[in-house]
Amino acid sequence: MEMDELLAQDAVVPNLKAGSKKQLLQELSHKAATLTGIEERRIFDVLLERERLGTTGVGQGIAIPHGKIGELPRLHGLFARLAAPIDFDAIDDEPVDLIFLLLAPESAGADHLKALARISRLLRDQEFCRKLRGSDEADAIYALLTDPSMPGHE
């Protein structure tokens, strides 16, 4: 699955404001509800349940919250760059400012894992993350994330 199949152009939020992890998950759930047609509370509950298993703050200012929702027909991604970093209980205890939300159907076992791996590879590249942090425009961020020449697209 290519990144442009996972991430719609209107699924990029370049300057999201959130003061806490809970508020961030609420904001992401709200935006994801408009993109997927799934009830906001349902998405929020799935994300919260996943965070209870262990943080999705993977370090270096990055979080990849994710979950499975049976009613989804396909995988959905949502990328947000925060206006100001927040505490996300990340594994390195550093605040988070780049978030890639991934929602998958219950049946998307291997596809869900492949998408998580691709997102992780992409966001492990420090130079790539510097470019994401340096852009305030949703279109520019979307272009970076879906550019086949970027890391993680192999």
Question: How would you portray this structure in words?
Answer:
Helix 2 packs across helix 3. This protein has a single domain, classed as Mannitol-specific EII, Chain A (3-Layer(aba) Sandwich). The chain has helices spanning 3-6, 21-36, 40-53, 109-124, 126-133, 138-146, and strands spanning 7-16, 57-59, 62-63, 66-68, 76-86, 96-104. It has 154 residues and is α/β, with parallel strands linked by helices. It is globular, with a radius of gyration of 14 Å. Strands 1, 2, 3, 4, 5 and 6 form a six-stranded mixed β-sheet that branches.
List keywords for this structure.
154 residues; alpha/beta; Mannitol-specific EII, Chain A; 6 strands; globular
What's the quick description here?
The chain is α/β, with parallel strands linked by helices and 154 residues long. It has helices at residues 3-6, 21-36, 40-53, 109-124, 126-133, 138-146; strands at residues 7-16, 57-59, 62-63, 66-68, 76-86, 96-104. The protein has a single domain (3-146), classed as 3-Layer(aba) Sandwich (Mannitol-specific EII, Chain A).
Show unreliable segments: none
Q: How many domains make up the 3D coordinates?
A: 1
What spatial form do the alpha-carbon principal axes imply? globular
Number of helices: 6
- Helix fraction, binned, reads 40-55%
Determine Rg (CA atoms, Å).
14 Å
Could you please say which CATH topology applies here?
Answer: Mannitol-specific EII, Chain A
Which class of secondary structure composition applies to the elements?
Answer: alpha/beta
Taken as a percent bin, the fraction of beta residues is: 15-25%
**SSE string:** HEHHEEEEEHHH
Overall mean confidence score, pLDDT: 93
